[in-house]
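Section 3.1: Structural characterization of target chains.
Under the original work plan, the team committed to producing a structural model for every single-chain target entering the pipeline before any wet-lab resources were allocated. The record below documents one such target. The sequence was received from the expression subgroup and is listed exactly as submitted; it comprises 209 residues.
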Amino acid sequence: MYSKKTMKSALETLMFMWGEPLDVKDAAEVLEAEKAEIRELFRELQTEYEQEGRGIRIREAGDAFGYVTHVENDMFVQKLCTPVRVRRLSQAALEVLAIIAYRQPVTRSEIDSIRGIKSERVIDGLMDKDLVEVTGRSEGVGRPLLYGTTREFLKKFGFASLKDLPEVPEYEELRREREEQGYGQLSINFDEEEKTEPGADESGEEQKD
């Protein structure tokens, strides 16, 4: 027969390793004890965690017990889970990501046309960050690659699906309006940074055929 201290320690380990609520029956079999005794030990641990103000709590669900986080620490979890890679996206990367998110599937030439600037390096960077992926090929001349966002994109930005994207005016409509007004290609700007002239790449150099 194991000591009470040993069984409590074992229950903590089992809950942690199991990853989901651990049935009292299964824990009792592992520790070779009665279910009533194991249930009481679970509840004692539950009380201890609460009294000591632990960041991890034990929740009872049916006849099972499992770890949960303390609800008052949610704001700290939110900060930790804020994606560093997304926070550090450059202005160009945000522009391209927005175009792909709303226009997908979209080709690189279509992205370049909307921005008025080459986007190849930016797209490669977004793919390295697992925010963008190749989704197929266009039926157009040369069958260029089509790009779309990934599941990681949805996860990082907190979307359940693409339907959760905020509504914005269609890029094609904006582009058409600008061209009709004689402004040329549409360049999407999220803040008041200096605009890059059409016909230049990310380094500011003019595009060459």
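The radius of gyration is 27 Å.
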